């Protein structure tokens, strides 16, 4: 054995042995809730702040709260900062998303139009919920986004899709390409507003992921958090007063959006965002009989 070499490395070996012992002693004597809930690094516990990197800020269920069963066929709650799932029920089941579809419609529109671009409603009528656009009415893309996301106007969604380069079918193709880019493996669109159709579906998990992307857009974030607003066509002659279909906005202090949906087959749907002391959570309920009440529970 090379004794001089061994004598050289022995102090280093002793140093790391002591350091490892102190680390695990700190882990054993420090309450788990302190290490996780307060998000201390191991280095901070030992007194060496730069020794180890901080762990990811995963949420910690300190009170071990358990949800009662929800009527919603599918549901999920996700911590937005870490994207950790806090609660889920059949979260990957493919279901009719109703007007929560308009989250993707808005995202595609925001990425492909200028918000001051003027588009024309060229249809005689649109099925389902509308904001009352008249044939030939011209509106900015921004106003149409308000009409679609706050008033859930299918007619506003029609204008955004029909005016797209390549037409409506190309707009829907781009919606599906975007879904693939975001790895929404249980999502497919056949229309821009959420009408019930055979091959039109999404899942609670996919909608939570989609909402997490959409909310990064400042205009989208602003619109979905607006309780009510009045918009007009470019002439100012046609006036549309909009009230947010998400009843939590303006009534629940922590609510920040995002989009409702409802049809006879899809049931009540709601993708929602909450912000309490800068801690943000996205919730989704699909095919519920009480989307507002069950969202509040989550």
Describe the protein in words.
The chain has 10 helices and 9 strands. It has helices at 3-29, 32-37, 42-46, 102-112, 141-149, 154-162, 167-181, 204-214, 218-224, 291-297, and strands spanning 74-79, 84-89, 118-120, 138-140, 228-232, 239-243, 255-263, 267-276, 279-288. A hairpin with a 3-residue loop joins strand 7 and strand 8 (267-276). Helix 4 runs antiparallel to helix 5, helix 5 packs antiparallel against helix 6 (154-162) and helix 6 packs across helix 7 (167-181). The protein starts with a helix and ends with a helix.
Topology record:
Layout: H1 3-29, H2 32-37, H3 42-46, E1 74-79, E2 84-89, H4 102-112, E3 118-120, E4 138-140, H5 141-149, H6 154-162, H7 167-181, H8 204-214, H9 218-224, E5 228-232, E6 239-243, E7 255-263, E8 267-276, E9 279-288, H10 291-297
Antiparallel strand pairs: 1-2, 1-9, 3-4, 5-6, 7-8, 8-9
Helix pairs in contact: 4-5, 5-6, 6-7
């Amino acid at each position: 054995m090379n004794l001089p070499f061994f004598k050289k490395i022995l102090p280093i070996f002793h140093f790391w042995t002591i350091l490892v012992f102190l680390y695990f002693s700190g882990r054993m004597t420090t309450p788990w809730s302190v290490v996780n809930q307060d998000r201390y690094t191991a280095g901070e516990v030992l007194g060496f702040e730069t020794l180890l990197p901080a762990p990811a800020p995963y949420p910690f269920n300190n009170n071990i709260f358990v949800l009662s069963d929800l009527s919603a066929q599918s549901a999920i709650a996700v911590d937005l900062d870490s994207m950790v799932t806090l609660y889920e029920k059949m979260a990957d089941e493919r279901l009719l998303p109703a007007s929560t579809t308009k989250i993707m419609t808005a995202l595609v529109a925001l990425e492909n139009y200028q918000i001051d671009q003027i588009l024309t409603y060229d249809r005689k009528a649109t099925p389902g919920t509308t904001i009352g656009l008249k044939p030939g009415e011209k509106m900015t893309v921004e106003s149409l986004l308000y009409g679609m996301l706050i008033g859930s106007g299918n007619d506003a969604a029609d204008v955004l899709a029909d005016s797209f380069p390549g037409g409506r079918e190309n707009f829907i193709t781009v919606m599906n390409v975007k879904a693939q880019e975001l790895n929404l493996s249980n999502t497919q669109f056949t229309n821009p507003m959420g009408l019930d159709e055979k091959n039109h579906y999404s899942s609670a998990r996919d909608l939570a992921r989609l909402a997490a992307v959409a909310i990064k857009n400042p205009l989208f974030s602003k619109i979905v958090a607006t309780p009510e607003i009045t918009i007009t066509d470019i002439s100012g002659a046609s006036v549309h007063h909009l009230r947010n279909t998400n009843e939590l906005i303006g009534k629940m202090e922590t609510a920040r959006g995002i989009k409702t949906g409802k049809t006879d087959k899809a049931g009540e749907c709601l993708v929602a965002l909450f912000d309490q002391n800068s801690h943000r959570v996205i919730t989704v309920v699909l095919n519920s009989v009480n989307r507002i009440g069950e969202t509040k529970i989550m």
